[in-house]
Amino acid sequence: MSRGPFIVFEGGEGSGKSTAAAAVAAALEAEGRRVVHTREPGGTPAGEQIRALLHEPLAPWAELFAFLAARAQLVAEVIRPALEAGATVICDRFAPSTFAYQVHARGLDPVIVRTANRAATGGLEPDLVVYLDLDPAEGLARKAGEGRAIATAHEALAFHQRVREGYLLQARDDPGRWYVIDAALPPARVAALALERVRRLEVGG
User: Fold this and answer.
1) Residue 201's pLDDT band (boundaries 50, 70, 90)?
2) For the whole prediction, is pTM greater than 0.90?
3) 1: pLDDT confidence band, cut at 50, 70 and 90?
4) What are the DSSP E strand ranges found in the chain?
5) Coil, strand or helix: which one is 73?
6) What mean pLDDT, rounded, does the chain reach?
7) What class is the 6-202 domain?
8) Is there a cis peptide before residue 187, judged by omega within 30 degrees of 0?
9) C-alpha dihedral over 16, 19, 23, 24, to 10 degrees?
10) Are 150 and 55 in contact (CB under 8 A)?
């Protein structure tokens, strides 16, 4: 059995990535595909406990290792078994978030973070990263009043501007794997563009 495709949805706060990921997963399931839709941090009992911890302000390295602990468990328990069974895995956030938030925005050493992330994931990389790009000011306005977001969501605008820069740098450096969508478009259009690109991946495009 061939390995299934691994698709990651990324975006800053309020970009609509979770909505788009859910819409794409539902569309693929409606077509009869085996789909596993999960999220970071979370997706496992241990990961959800770590997600609760991440609502608290942590030192930057503590924050990183909390995210990586959740990721390691998710890869071992959910993502890798599903891929090996031939399912399509759609994950709401993965390693690109780490390099946008903890490396580019927090300023952690990229070499150390890359090594730690590789250990946590066993070297697993997404086949496609769908990045929903949005002006951080608009994204934060969309999220205004949501009190239960993890701590990184409550950082100042300048932090989220650095996050966006971190995402765009990754997209620029790996255009074959990254697909950037204007998240200011209507949600249905965003989901349709994402689904079209995912379908091309499924047939090797």
Assistant:
1) confident
2) yes
3) low
4) 6-11, 35-39, 88-92, 128-133, 178-182
5) helix
6) 94
7) alpha beta
8) no
9) 50
10) yes
pLDDT tens digits, 124-138: 999 999 999 999 999
pLDDT(205) > 60: no
The answer to whether 102 and 113 are in contact (CB under 8 A) is: yes
Distance CA 139, CA 135 (A): 6
- Write the DSSP symbol of residue 14: T
End-to-end alpha carbon distance in the chain:
20
**What is the per-residue pLDDT for 145?**
65
Domain ranges of the chain: 6-202
Asked if 189 and 132 touch (Cβ cutoff 8 Å), the reply is: no
Tell me how long the chain is. Answer: 205
Question: Cα Rg for the chain, rounded, in angstroms?
Answer: 16
Q: How far is CA 32 from the centre of its chain?
A: 24
Q: How many CA atoms lie within 13 A of 39 on its CB side?
A: 13
- The residue whose two tokens read 């241990």 is 46
Q: Is 188 exposed, middle or buried (0-12, 13-18, 19+ CB in 10 A)?
A: exposed
